[in-house]
Specification:
single chain, alpha+beta, 7-stranded mixed β-sheet, 33 helices, 24 strands
Amino acid sequence: MRRAGSLVAAAALLAVSNPVWASVAPAQAPSQASAPAFQAAPVSELVAEVDIPYTKFTLDNGLTVLVHEDHKAPVVAVSVWYNVGSKDEPAGKTGFAHLFEHLMFGGSENAPGSYFTPMRNMGATDMNGTTWFDRTNYFETVPTPALEQALFMESDRMGYMLGAISQETLDLQRGVVQNEKRQGDNQPYGLNQYKQLEALFPEGHPYRHSTIGSMADLDAASMETVRDWFRSNYGPNNSVLVLAGDITPAKARELTQKYFGAIPRGPVNTPAQASVPTLPAPISETTRDRVSNARVEISWAVPGMLDADAVPLSVGASVLGGLASSRLDNALVRGEQSAVSVSASNSAFHRVGMFDITLDVKPGQDPAAVEARAREILNGLIADGPTAAEVERVKTQYVSRTVQGLEQVGGFGGKAVALAEGQLYAGDPEHYKKELQAYAAVTPAQVQAAMQKWLTRPAYTLTTLPGEREAYQEAAEAPSGANHTPAPPIERVARMPKPEIAAVANVDFPAVQRTRLSNGVEVVYAQRDAVPATKIAIDFNAGLAADDASKLGLQSLMLDLMDEGTRTLNATQLAEAQETLGATISTGASMDRSVVQLSAVTPNLQPSVALLADVVKNPAFAASELERLRATRLSRIAAERTQPAALASRALPELIYGASSPYGRPFSGNGDEASVKSITEADIRADYAEWIRPDNAKIFVVSDKPLSEITPVLEAEFGRWTAPAVAKGVKDFSGSIPATTSRIVLIDRPQSPQSYIMGGEVLAAQGTDDLLVFNAANNVLGNDFLSRINSDLRETKGWSYGVNASVAGFAGRVPYLVTAPVQADQTGPAIEALNLQFNDFLKGGKGVTPTELERTVNGNTRRLAGSYETSAAVLGAMRGNDMLGRPDDYPETVAARTNALTAAELDAAAQAALDPSRFVWVVVGDASVVKPQLDALGLPVEVRSAAPAAQ
């Protein structure tokens, strides 16, 4: 029901497993009624399912090691958490923790060069590093035979790092960080976080500055200052190492002692203390930015995660604006329709938290009035407290998500994270259990008391109005490297050679079974039993390409309406039913498929499937809701015209496909203003009848329960579903795709510190063709952190935070798309550099090298072991294989074919597919800064406004 934020159009380009989610808040029938009773498993039963057995030991140097055995897949999650974040940075050193996150990926003394190279070679998945107020972490999931090499790498950057940091490396990573800052600042509302932190926290407070920090502080840092920061904070006694997966505690003890045991202790670091400040009086500010609608943000500083009030405040936030059935949603979005979206959240950090209310005001409404109404709703919740039913729904939803999230051993939110966070912040790896128990036990009175205590204090309110962005201190065009004070050389310590990787077994993809319901609908099933959860996707051969050119946005608007109410449940009742069951039902579309999905805990499977069937078979399509969602959709399109990536992906499809192609429309699926205004209720009902029907459907299921238990549940709800009398829809791809020649379309977005470049061409290949060889070649050229283009623009030149080129997962003629956000003063040179890399690779005799071939083959085969660990990954693979006409066991065929590849085959595949002279480039940036650079390239340049043409 509730979706996350506005669409980034490029998401529509991903494979079928990543649909473009219909993205509006739930609608409501004219009057609200209580949700009908559903027989859901008690929260206590769900809590009992959550357990992460572990072994804990500490090395003599103070390194805390946590080990969790999980042999469901031959992979191990390696997660290293350093007890240092931006809150620990003193004045003059802001941004150091985040800078070191970058530096520690840049190579260590015994593993020189980018860490992405060996990690890619070992087949690491879920690999990343992050910095936040309270911690810095690095994580990767590796095939079991690669574990020793991964531990060598992690130990080398922990204990043998400083000798690898040169002045050149330091300056380069300062530049990368500046482009990361530009990328965030360049978004609508992108400057608000700085205002919020500075208002809520007084001078000197550890949480007052943003994690990315001060560019002036980074520039002023000498090499010795940087080294001292590392020595003080990254020792083993300030770290937690978690190994989760295919490993035993005994083996873990042996390997951690082998690789980490010789690292000496560092200084004892006590994380910065921080009180919860209270503003002496309310603060209200108004700012202007290049946004499509006004936004009101109300914030309080509140206690951190270990405080007894943290869980009650989080529950209160969900009741207020987190649940799909929240009070703010019911009143402001569905009822009075004065806001297009609302939210409330409690972000609980180690020492403090931030309670936020965000109101995106509907165009034409008064922000002050919307703010006043939101405060009235908040005050009513504080005065009367939440209902018992509201609290129970929050509990069930939270526990359900926790259960399903623990299917993964690593990544951003798996078992390793739960153990590490508990140890780091609470000194207890089982803190997640205490938090679950706190949720299970929390009462409405406790929620009311916590909100009364903390949210009746003065708040900071920031109102953002559409207009020219106010002046602010941008990142410098290039890092000044102001302080180049020489530092003495580091005396390196010899250690063992990097271990080799043993043979990695081929992936064992779960057996796929098929059956049919009595009405002929095919069911495609696989079993995953790590957690008691079931995921169902009902795919329809429709997608954004089903839209008629005169009714762009119809398919996604129809899907939006499907889960905004059924014939028996209004939107609020539907949301309450899902929350009661701990289930999530969502609708969405990729270019070629429309989907309705269910994620449920298996103890509540039967009523959850019944709810899914009601959404699919009985949508209400109320005329009043169509008008509300139409207004919301128009607001969303207006928002897209303020977002750099969305502007580019609205413009490029028609430029490369032509207006007549079903693929030649905005990739977000939202359509344009004229088409959305023209859609009628009859259009919605006709679109549903043409596409959302049993003879156009296929059901995909991944569950811990066997197919023999799943089939009767599906049969009961879908077995008698019959197709309407009208003909099934047909997509028309008969039109020709125009030949293109290289040119540039510049979309003028004034005050942009960064330009967003998006370019490409339509390939001759279909998505249903065998693209394995070309995709492997493109890993070298464009679709990898280590690709030629990213290495050049990010790691060598420092002009971008990240560059990519890849084939979109369409079933028909596929586009090859290049995306490159770059600093504004290097926009023209960046396109020139991209063209040079493409031409050198394709025509200049600089094809795939032996090193690149080895890295690509090893990475693409070894990573298979960790690619299908979760139910969601298996479900996505099943759906993608079906859409692209692949066999069910396709993942098991990839390794043998990849191992046989040669550099000559990769070069030939790329040369046959790509022609940079046909690339059309869209640049979103400040024309006053960018156009002279583009004119110098010698290509035709057309300038467009970001605003729509007059309707």
